[in-house]
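Before relying on records like the one below, remember that each one covers exactly one chain. Contacts with other chains, cofactors or solvent are not represented anywhere in the record.
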Amino acid sequence: MHRNSYKFSVLALTYIAYCCYHLTRKPISVVKSVLHRNCSTVALPKGVLLSEAIDNSTWCDYPPFDGPNSAALFGTLDSAFLFCYAAAMFMSGFIAERVSLRYFLTFGMLFSGIFCYLFGLAKTYNVHSMSYFVFVQAMAGIFQTTGWPGVVTVVGRWFGKAKRGLIFGIWNSHTSIGNIFGSLIAAKYVESDWSKSFIMPGLIMGICGFILFLFLVDSPDSVGIGERHLGEPRRRDQYSRVESNDSITDDSEPDDTDIVVGEQEVSGNIVRPLRGSINTEVTMRANERSPMLGSSTSSFESKSGDAIGFMGALRIPGVVEFSLCLFFSKLVSYTFLYWLPLYIQSSTTLGAELSADLSTLFDVGGIIGAIAAGVLSDYTNMPASTCTGMLAVTAPMVSYHPMFSVC
């Protein structure tokens, strides 16, 4: 199989995978509008008497979100997801560097789908415990952290630095595409049976996770393609054998107990230079045959050969600055992700389904902006300036947003 075919499959599979991650994040923002609403404007379903509706002014709501503090409860659900997502991301990145990313992503997708599915089952089995909803959202946030470090690392292994802005600009549209499909699927069922707004995305997530497990090739080394062909120095798996020159001495399965990598000898996970050898830059990467626990190296290594630590990452130029930019941009984007459909419905006469459909325009703009930023970054070779410029334009757009009413 040609390396370009592998690269295309990796790009497609990771694209679908992260679409699914956002597919399962979006339903909560759509369903909020029917968990608590003005029941006087809702048509009485069959079997509900007018007298019963008058006696119970919240008959159309879903407990525990039928009280006056529903907004606070919705905020609690969002906070449970996001705080657990933020905290678990540190551990997720640590684990991703030390295990097979194919297993890592599959595991994360399956459990993310399960907890999305469990949120919908609350209606099916008439669960009204706030603790249940908080627990499901918290666990979903933890397993959702497998997505970003997993897919970014896989794509980074396969694509060189040339024109990476355009590649990542197109590829990064998976976030918006996932939000769009998540909104459309949730909107289809939100007014008839909101449980399916979670169940269907959860099922799709699980199926795609299984497909990823079957077909994802998480590194060029696992199929014998040296990274020299990808525009970067050659790296080999810690269980492969490579000479310090240009040739590969053996692509067959070597003996794990005594392996030579470059001018170094590897016994288990221990690397020691051979006598008389020259210094050779060698990077060992965890693969499916690496131990799940114990010491292991990764594609991001310090000079001593250990995986880079948190403080070491902070010392990399630009990390703190770009992290702050991402922090504030995510602050805005997640506000739109979780609250835009409800905001549109509360400020217009549109129903829950149409409000969710209209909210997808935000993500349509995200697709266009991501591709435009990638092209501009490659053309100018100034990614930081591109980021600054687009954030500067975003600020007044967000400020003026409440002044415009949707017709």
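The first strand starts at residue 259 and ends at 261.
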